[in-house]
């Protein structure tokens, strides 16, 4: 895999950092243990993995795709990283992302965009475009992503790979740089559903270092995949969400979705149509809650504690106060999208506007959760396209934030409700010839069901 990275990553640019030597050493240690007849640490021992560069790994540079963290070496590892290393997984490097995971195309990275291996002139999705592209380009068989509004599922969809967002609290967030704490989830990415399930089990579980981590919840998703492969989906009620198709969705995506519905029906599932009327407000709700939380989370980048520190003004004169240093550092260290959201969030949380914006958004979030609850009374899982469009050309939406935000039309409701959801490849769009992803959503703690259904597309 290191050879493959060397051969293709100059074009793809999936990685921000490659841990060449230490990865090789780690792999060789696994080989030696195997040769000595020692039991493997886990089924994934020795398997290479690409880690999204928003998850800390002790001693390895972590940037979150931002200039403000350039040169920062974390003194500790995220729980997820620790679990992976304990399982014998070989972390080959850190992958590119939109700055602080804000974006849907990886073009907001301060270190240049990642390209889609299916067509190098197109985006690989975002924010986890690096992880998805590393999989699609065969630079690694496993990857870790984070999903706040779709950053695992939408990149998976547009690169023809698999990605799952666990139930909120199912995987520890400790050591993962926070975007929006009430939405962020770490999740597994791979090229097959079974690999995704194996990785899911390796990272899931309670962590006392994360106060929102769920206790006593260990979904048996590998068994669920095997069950799906042998028993299929017969008897399962699968809900098609009326509001998550139609306007705003590319014809080739809708066509592929209709074929996927037919596949499930032919395999014995009962298809029901469900309506979730408040999903119409999901995007607006998300773009109040997310900026609010991120404006608060990103306050820690104060030029004192981490990374970049700008100490002179444009003319080279020394800045004298802490406030001036902070202001200059944040001015230079953050990109345009990050600043846009900090400003929006600060405004939405300010005295006099809090109730009208943040408070209302929280109420609508509850209504969206209730829509899901009602839908799950009628269906075991819900499905929709994972992304409204296939991979678009680089540069097409960079100057139009609203057009960029619309890429998460289908994934954001599930994020607001904290439910588990994944994207599996459902074929190529007839209009663009590019991969389409099917989104499978379950009720909270319903990981096993979604993996069982996903197995039908393996
Ligand atoms: N594209 C969405 C955003 O920009 C999702 C980001 C994410 O899931 N990290 O907020």
TrEMBL record:
<dbReference type="InterPro" id="IPR036928">
    <property type="entry name" value="AS_sf"/>
</dbReference>
<dbReference type="InterPro" id="IPR020556">
    <property type="entry name" value="Amidase_CS"/>
</dbReference>
<dbReference type="InterPro" id="IPR023631">
    <property type="entry name" value="Amidase_dom"/>
</dbReference>
<keyword id="KW-0547">Nucleotide-binding</keyword>
<protein>
    <recommendedName>
        <fullName>Glutamyl-tRNA(Gln) amidotransferase subunit A</fullName>
        <ecNumber>6.3.5.7</ecNumber>
    </recommendedName>
</protein>
<comment type="subunit">
    <text>Heterotrimer of A, B and C subunits.</text>
</comment>
<dbReference type="GO" id="GO:0005524">
    <property type="term" value="F:ATP binding"/>
</dbReference>
<dbReference type="InterPro" id="IPR004412">
    <property type="entry name" value="GatA"/>
</dbReference>
<comment type="similarity">
    <text>Belongs to the amidase family. GatA subfamily.</text>
</comment>
<dbReference type="GO" id="GO:0006412">
    <property type="term" value="P:translation"/>
</dbReference>
<feature type="active site" description="Charge relay system">
    <location>
        <position position="52"/>
    </location>
</feature>
<feature type="active site" description="Charge relay system">
    <location>
        <position position="127"/>
    </location>
</feature>
<dbReference type="Pfam" id="PF01425">
    <property type="entry name" value="Amidase"/>
</dbReference>
<feature type="active site" description="Acyl-ester intermediate">
    <location>
        <position position="151"/>
    </location>
</feature>
<dbReference type="GO" id="GO:0030956">
    <property type="term" value="C:glutamyl-tRNA(Gln) amidotransferase complex"/>
</dbReference>
<comment type="function">
    <text>Allows the formation of correctly charged Gln-tRNA(Gln) through the transamidation of misacylated Glu-tRNA(Gln) in organisms which lack glutaminyl-tRNA synthetase. The reaction takes place in the presence of glutamine and ATP through an activated gamma-phospho-Glu-tRNA(Gln).</text>
</comment>
<keyword id="KW-0648">Protein biosynthesis</keyword>
<keyword id="KW-0067">ATP-binding</keyword>
<dbReference type="GO" id="GO:0050567">
    <property type="term" value="F:glutaminyl-tRNA synthase (glutamine-hydrolyzing) activity"/>
</dbReference>
<feature type="domain" description="Amidase">
    <location>
        <begin position="1"/>
        <end position="450"/>
    </location>
</feature>
<dbReference type="InterPro" id="IPR000120">
    <property type="entry name" value="Amidase"/>
</dbReference>
<keyword id="KW-0436">Ligase</keyword>
